[in-house]
Design goal:
By secondary structure, the protein is mainly alpha-helical. It has two domains: about 160 residues, DNA polymerase, domain 1; about 30 residues, no CATH class. About 45% of the residues lie in helices and about 10% in strands. The protein is built from seven helices and six strands; from the N terminus they run E-E-H-H-H-E-E-H-E-H-E-H-H. The strands form three sheets. Strands 1-2 form a two-stranded antiparallel ribbon. A hairpin with a 2-residue loop joins strand 3 and strand 4. It is elongated. It starts with a strand and ends with a helix.
Length: about 210
């Protein structure tokens, strides 16, 4: 199973697809990627979803389970499976990652992103893919703490439905990283490229802040 590039025949079609070893596209994933493309998701986002769902289908193939057989219990096993997978991506200095004898593991943020993609995939299958008898295996619950935040975004119209924040129960705890400061050499070069005093003042304010 692999993600391959393809040439969209018309605007609003994805530029990637997930195919089986036989070369045939995975129909459910193709329909989901199409739904993202027609909603004007960026090509990089669509590509990331394709790779995330490839991990899900690889896990299901190892377990001998169909897409419709993915349950909350299997979701927990899937997370454990993700935590021991090797990362083929370039290391990010801003993220903490586990390194073992056979390479770097997927970071906690990457695992959470995959779970989010899987949840969106099953929401699509339930609402548009004829999987009405299947429940989303990535369980969610109301996020009471976010609901109490005073600065939380609220609908601008009084007639708009109130948006209730939710969070996924199955996720990996992440650590908020401290932003990396710009090296002094880079900052001075950037400052030297600005001609207007207003732009220099704004940059100085951001740098000192």
């Amino acid at each position: 199973m692999r993600v391959v590039k393809c040439e969209p025949e018309r605007l609003g079609e994805p530029a990637v697809m997930l195919v089986e070893d036989s070369g045939l596209p995975v129909s459910e994933v193709s329909a989901f990627l199409l739904s993202l493309a027609v909603r004007d998701f960026s090509p990089n986002t669509v590509r990331a979803y394709a790779y995330d769902l490839m991990k899900l289908l690889q896990f299901l193939d190892e377990r001998g389970e169909p897409v419709s057989g993915f349950s909350p219990m299997l979701a927990t096993e899937f997370l454990a499976w993700l935590r021991v997978q090797s990362s083929a991506g370039r290391a990010q200095r801003s993220q903490l990652g586990l390194v073992s004898g056979d390479g770097r593991r997927l970071s906690a943020r990457t695992c959470n992103r995959v779970l989010s993609a899987v949840s969106s995939f099953y929401e699509f299958l339930i609402s548009c893919g004829g999987y009405s008898q299947v429940e989303n295996p990535i369980l969610r619950e109301a996020d009471q703490s976010s609901a109490r935040v005073l600065g939380r975004h609220r609908p601008p119209l009084l007639t708009s439905a109130d948006q209730r924040p939710v969070r996924r129960i199955l996720r990996v705890r992440t650590v908020d990283t401290v932003p990396r400061p710009v090296p002094d050499e880079t900052y001075l070069v950037l400052l030297g490229q600005l001609d207007k005093l207003r732009d220099r003042a704004l940059l100085e304010l951001m740098h000192e802040g």
